[in-house]
Malonyl-CoA decarboxylase, mitochondrial isoform X2
Amino acid sequence: MNKKALAILMRARMRPNHLTNFALSPISNELNQILSNSHGNRSGENGEHHAMEHGKEKLNHQRSFEVVRESMHSVISMNKTEVGDSVLNEFLEGYCSLSFENRRKLLLTLAKEYDLNRAQVCELIKQYLGLQPPGSEAQSGGVADEGFLSTFYRIERNLRHSLKPVYETLFERLNTHPEGLKFLTIIRADILSILTQCIQSVILLILREDWELVVVVSDIFIQPYLNIAETIQV
């Protein structure tokens, strides 16, 4: 092809049917498929990346919760002389870093796992009720009365100790911390927010007249938080 013919061809307009034919040609379909696959791969990669990031974030939240839970356990279980400001600071900072949902979860754990040892309470009550009161006809008086009184005093002392929830130890030790009062105020505010949500759920159940669930929600979700709230002295 000479230069003149090439110039004429380059200036010529392409008809619409040429575009249509190209759009329907196998090459066009293949290009569209490649572009579609490329876009799909990118979307898939983005989706996988998002899922991985979400999984990492969830795992980090879970690890943070477990770390704070262990810190709380240390504050409760350590001897009074072993609990220093560093241990309390670790728990305070960890709690404040938790999301509201994890705070709710931690407080529920505190209320249930560090509550009374009811099996021990029942056993002590049985022992106490099985004793004969001092001065009764079944006793001969004198040394026997003193022995029975000693047994009464011992069981009463153990009973008073067993009726004290374990989580009270946490609040007592936080009260000795310079920032403890402020922190206990934060915990109580969180509990009030949680109770507000629980009460709203109970109101909905009452409106539905689902009385069995009202009792379940009250006993399982509301009462544990109320027990903690009553213990906090601020």
The CA atoms of residues 64 and 97 lie 8 Å apart.
